[in-house]
Amino acid sequence: MLGTASSASNHDHAAVNSQLAKILESPHFRNSKRSQALLRFILESALSGDHAPLKERSIGAAVFGREIAYDTAQDPIVRNAAIEVRKRLAQYYLEPEHAGELRIDIPIGSYIPSFRIESPAAEPIKQSAPPSKLGHAHKWMLAALALALIGIAGAFLWTTRRTPGSELDAFWDPMFRDGKTIQICIGQPNRLYRFTGPRIEELNRLLGARSGSDRDTANLSISAAELTWVAPEYLFLRDALSAFNVASWLQSKGRSYQLTSVTATNYSQLRRAPLVAIGAFNNQWAMRVNAELRFAFSHRNDGGILYNSIDDRRNPTAAQWRVAQPATGTMTEDYAIVTHVFDPATENTVISAAGIETYGTLAASEFISRPEYVGAALRAAPKDWTRKNVQFVLGTKIIDGAPGPPRVLAAHFW
Hints:
Layout: H1 13-25, H2 27-30, H3 33-47, H4 56-64, H5 77-94, E1 103-105, E2 114-116, H6 134-162, H7 167-176, E3 182-186, E4 193-195, H8 200-208, E5 227-229, H9 237-252, E6 257-261, H10 267-270, E7 275-278, H11 284-290, E8 295-302, E9 305-312, E10 322-324, E11 333-343, E12 348-355, H12 358-367, H13 371-377, E13 390-399, E14 402-403, E15 407-413
Parallel strand pairs: 3-6, 3-7, 7-12
Antiparallel strand pairs: 1-2, 4-5, 8-9, 9-10, 11-12, 11-13, 13-14, 13-15
Helix pairs in contact: 1-3, 3-4, 3-5, 7-13, 9-12
């Protein structure tokens, strides 16, 4: 059982510094200089008893070299770094070998750390039964037996109702526990414009023609005033189909959900309910969730060719999961990451189904909504996988413009 939270002044400074050293040497912090610097500064300031530096602007200046009067609304580097530190701390303490250690937390909305120490649960005091007549004791025994049977029956009914019926049910169970409406956040095109102004028809004719002299645009000049950004009005078809797959699964389980676009989703909404993020490079929330995990999305330049790729941070030189940019209709394979993680920044479970291109996203949505795919993927999983975060890297063949079944290429549990 966790003890109550307390300030740095109530803890031995040597113990706090020792725990900080363990955390910074762990895989969760070892390769992130930014997270190391922020956590070290916060703890050193707290241990000194001076909380004045633990303000966003002061931290930005002291840790990240910003001017003391910089605009924190335009440059949220401290908030973003704190989100990552909270996530890394949560991942550290999820590992069983750290269960009995001094727990360091940075509460959301504050940069003043708190500390908890694991305390063993007290054993119940055993009381001997007072002497009584045999007949009286016999009645009490029958009553106790009846109560025990009622309790066993109730526990059986509760367990039957709560125990997931398949690996897919177990995979989704953390999303269902609080009965909250699940948000399905759909990615949107990042760059999509419409012509505006008196040359609308001319520009549509010139740039809409497939080939021939009508497509002669060598000397065409378009001003910024002739373009208007319309990306928030559109969805990719395969992303919309992916959201439909997830919504159908939730509906089959009698769960409530809300469909929303990425441009209509903000952080305060994510604090209120579990999230399913659809899409990768077109969904900032999916990118944020995966940003510091083992498998993450990135851009690569290899020999002058641009790629969107999935990187394995444990094997950073590998480049086997990538798609050349811009993607064309001749693609034969796409790749995706399915992530299931507790996000300490929102204090909710997040599932992301995210492909490099929308083919991979659609395959990922099938993976998380069809029991045969998740069931097969979890056969080799750790026995306690239901208490862990997980990432799957998927591959899918593209045949006649449609993605094939998702194949698991890699998995990571922690």
